[in-house]
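Q: I have four molecules that I believe assemble together. Could you output structure tokens for the complex as a whole instead of separate predictions?
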Amino acid sequence: MNVGLVGVTGYSGSVLYELLRRHPNVDQVNLYGHAQKVAQSLNEVLPQLRSRSSILPYDPVEITKNNQVVFFATSAGVTTNLATPFIEAGFPVIDLAGDFRLKSRETYKKWYKKSAPKTEYLEKSHYGLADFYEVNDAKYVANPGCYATATLLALAPLIQNHLVDTSSIVVDAKSGTSGAGKKPNEMTHFTKTNENLQLYKVNQHQHIPEIVQQLQIWDKSVPYIQFTTTLLPLTRGIMASCYAKAKPEITEDDVRNAFIRTYSDDTFVNATEGVFPTLKQVVGTNFCDIGYQLNPVTHQIVIVSVIDNLLKGAAGQAIQNFNSMFNYTPETGLDLTPVLP
Amino acid sequence: MNVGLVGVTGYSGSVLYELLRRHPNVDQVNLYGHAQKVAQSLNEVLPQLRSRSSILPYDPVEITKNNQVVFFATSAGVTTNLATPFIEAGFPVIDLAGDFRLKSRETYKKWYKKSAPKTEYLEKSHYGLADFYEVNDAKYVANPGCYATATLLALAPLIQNHLVDTSSIVVDAKSGTSGAGKKPNEMTHFTKTNENLQLYKVNQHQHIPEIVQQLQIWDKSVPYIQFTTTLLPLTRGIMASCYAKAKPEITEDDVRNAFIRTYSDDTFVNATEGVFPTLKQVVGTNFCDIGYQLNPVTHQIVIVSVIDNLLKGAAGQAIQNFNSMFNYTPETGLDLTPVLP
Amino acid sequence: MNVGLVGVTGYSGSVLYELLRRHPNVDQVNLYGHAQKVAQSLNEVLPQLRSRSSILPYDPVEITKNNQVVFFATSAGVTTNLATPFIEAGFPVIDLAGDFRLKSRETYKKWYKKSAPKTEYLEKSHYGLADFYEVNDAKYVANPGCYATATLLALAPLIQNHLVDTSSIVVDAKSGTSGAGKKPNEMTHFTKTNENLQLYKVNQHQHIPEIVQQLQIWDKSVPYIQFTTTLLPLTRGIMASCYAKAKPEITEDDVRNAFIRTYSDDTFVNATEGVFPTLKQVVGTNFCDIGYQLNPVTHQIVIVSVIDNLLKGAAGQAIQNFNSMFNYTPETGLDLTPVLP
Amino acid sequence: MNVGLVGVTGYSGSVLYELLRRHPNVDQVNLYGHAQKVAQSLNEVLPQLRSRSSILPYDPVEITKNNQVVFFATSAGVTTNLATPFIEAGFPVIDLAGDFRLKSRETYKKWYKKSAPKTEYLEKSHYGLADFYEVNDAKYVANPGCYATATLLALAPLIQNHLVDTSSIVVDAKSGTSGAGKKPNEMTHFTKTNENLQLYKVNQHQHIPEIVQQLQIWDKSVPYIQFTTTLLPLTRGIMASCYAKAKPEITEDDVRNAFIRTYSDDTFVNATEGVFPTLKQVVGTNFCDIGYQLNPVTHQIVIVSVIDNLLKGAAGQAIQNFNSMFNYTPETGLDLTPVLP
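A: Yes, here they are, computed for all four components at once.
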């Protein structure tokens, strides 16, 4: 089949393009520039890809005609406007931006400072947390955010199984600069980021509402989370160090069994008790590695999950949703080489 | 006065040497190698210092004769053996290692896997948390560990004022490689550390017992802490991101007032509500910058403190203790230039 | 076919393993540990590869029986001893180490400080500079060194076409730490390499003799080269900045034509006049990008070539030689994704 | 005395401020914003300095009234306009920008793409290469550029003593990002600079004309230089790797004697035969370390010099010129601590 991709010039767009190009079930990847009126050579904007492809002008009619699905790897706010014809036509969309992840328009507006899509569209969209939900018949997949993916995968076993005090959840998340956007600004100037740690949007990161929304689906009693984000002097990767207070009666066995039950069949998520992952071990891959441990004295549980923010946190998970949507096996097109050494 | 320094070749030793050299009240810094039998040229082992000094053979008699105080910047286990003559003679010692920080020999042995000094010596030693304790008449100052300093300064206002549930304390600490030791090993190989985050000694770091010891002095009810240490791809700095659940009746005002009361007179510690420090802003200085915030929904408090691990976390605090010991003003010899930009 | 690989635990060995695993014409990669007597789980030594394979004990009889070719990614000095049975049997070997690259035993001993293989073996070995030489009937391929690859690809057009004063060649080469060896030492300690540039083995690097050997094949008059190597604070990549004085009569056209003639048909080498490559643009790929320019005032030519030292400088070029040996098309198994962004 | 400083917010301006503040002969540093109409708190724009100073509105009358000298650490193009009243009044100026370094207006315009100052002003300005020239009676000091300083110090002994073929000079220079400007742009985005080397302005860097101008003063026969600049993934430091062909009759002794003669009395420049410096060993100091070696086979000389681009390459050399201008000893205010470890 042919697939369309809008937004190849962004970080996750370029990574997604490379995955789609090599996907066994994809014949051709058609590129479209969402703000483009004329065709542009991909090699001009992304010479690193050494591609002879063109980025075609944006045309929803052409997109639906020449492809069986379209991926949007655009900035927040773009699909709110552009998705409508596809939704109306029931044409499959996998959207890497945040526009359709939240069910509540007010919450979206509060966090993204933009107008949200129509409620009926939000209701139809499927939150694509691929390790937990098959796409089934959904036509609009809202691919989760990177921080959200790392955090939800870490917390799922504990929250689903009601093992912790839900008001004690702390997430200390750390990300490389490829999660901070392509546009040069003061914070990501090399001189500012190098040899430095910079907190930003403490308790304000726009991934918080989708994390809370999903946690509340698993356990209504989750009021909120403490969420700290720190920018690291490295390019790729997210580490979410999560902490939660176990309920008094919960034992190490309960914790272990929860992680085993949740992830033993999962292709991409690996959870190990007492062994904590390094960030680099997942970079270049679609894996999420998790280490967890119940502290016998304080009865707190530490859960550390690592992902490649552009793969498991974006393009890789998009491919998982694509495979689910079209009934390919979960690991199709995702047998990736880690970045060695 | 003249001062003696044992251990100039270690990271904190070399930084301490540079501070002592420039201290207005120090005439001469005499260097001694704790395992040396003959004099050695400092320029041979540390050419970076461009010094013509010699490292003299170790001789406690000579040390006490030619100096008014001796600093030890040696590895854990050295002062346990070498400090005895000085303690017996009541000769002033400032010890940057962990040997004399703990009051309990069993605790020391459990965490450091080495024999501890004699109990009577431990009882006499002064835990040199300089922003809280003057040295007064104490002759043996045990300079706190770097992680311990960052953590204690962050938590002090909340613990001293009993504002939090003491079993909810979480410390997510991150350090540069200059805190991880000079000896090449697999973990600190550039290829391993670069572009990576590595957790180590989770809940096992040897700074934990001194942190708990001090917290328990402030509030007996502190049972333990959850303490995670992560190695960062940068050279200098420690960030301790701390979390604790406020007691139900505690308000933002209570939190703010605690920090203001604790630090308003402090030369080196700056705490600001809602403004979180970057790591780099303290590197090269003896400052500890702290940002804190009470989360209105979860009622958790996040406190982020940053220090330069070799200065505030070691050599700088040693100078603070030196100033206290000899009644110099607190900032003497500590007007340091940050590493710009 | 099945292939054997000895030395998977080294940096280039692990990268080579990943390439062979995905090579369309390779059914199975059999791993052997050159110093191993019993089988070992690959996951124990290289968990990053998430592999269920075993590293089998070393046995040349088993190797020749179960494979059609064997790759050695061992340290210098190993194949000098181990290659004999394969050479005697005429069994195909692709050797990533330096043992068989030089034709002169004295030169080898002088540079590597080790005994060289027998002269008759050296004579039979094929220097696998893949963009210039097909393997044809050769059975023993000595894969060039990484610095040598970058340098020879940069200089070939000028030397083959006798465009420069051969005593004016200057190579200022810069490499990431993955080229400096896995064993932790003082130089590659993160604290030493970070924020630093370190020259090493100036005019003494063991790649110099093979560079000179090859240049002299193209032009006898090359006496030697000035070769500076600098260690960079990054993991992967080599940049060779080369300079040579053009002969008085040589023009820009001559230079341009030489590069075009040499590389227009080459799959992997791209040379552009006046456009200089960044290091990162080739990392993760088997490409060598070159920028060159004749300085109209000084009549010097600057040529900057970049490669991924573990791919084009080692494993990737080994696959090129493998493809040549078995008549696969040049790019088979080498359609690699750059490390984005 | 009091000194004025215009441009404290730039990288070299902030470093210069820290040096002036601690200079034994400076009572007060008055700050002025060249484009400011009202006073501004320094802490607002540079909180890292933790200063209570103000940046006063720009007023040349006030500047000359309240200070004995004014330093300009502004961008190129500013002093061309603002310096006039000071030059007319013969008021001492030390200018860190490039506006007054070149004697030829055409050359300046060609390289900086801006209008140059008047010829009579250019004639009066003193090129402040402090290790070679005392300021004497000059009132306007044009502080050399960072790349220029590293390069001229490396080449001086060879050029002054006419030991090399002047048309063979190659400079392969590498700089950290603090030399590339504070304004965020694509090149210095962390994601672009990290793990990368980027050549820029090859043979076009605006420091080239001042390097050539100075070399030609030492030896008219210098036609030009080959000058390559590479941006490194680190913050501070410049390494200039220089190469030149020795004249046929020149020996190792000639080269060694030239370096010894040139630098044996120099406080800040250290040249060693056969020992090459690392970049970091000078960072935080005003030293320039040089390693050199004559290659016996190719008869080329390699000279590697390293400086801290913001100190020896800017603010530190400005203090040297200040000391010279006011007859303070050369090292006054320049006893700086290296950045350890």
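A: One point stands out. Residues 147-309 of chain C form a domain with the Dihydrodipicolinate Reductase; domain 2 fold (CATH 3.30.360.10).
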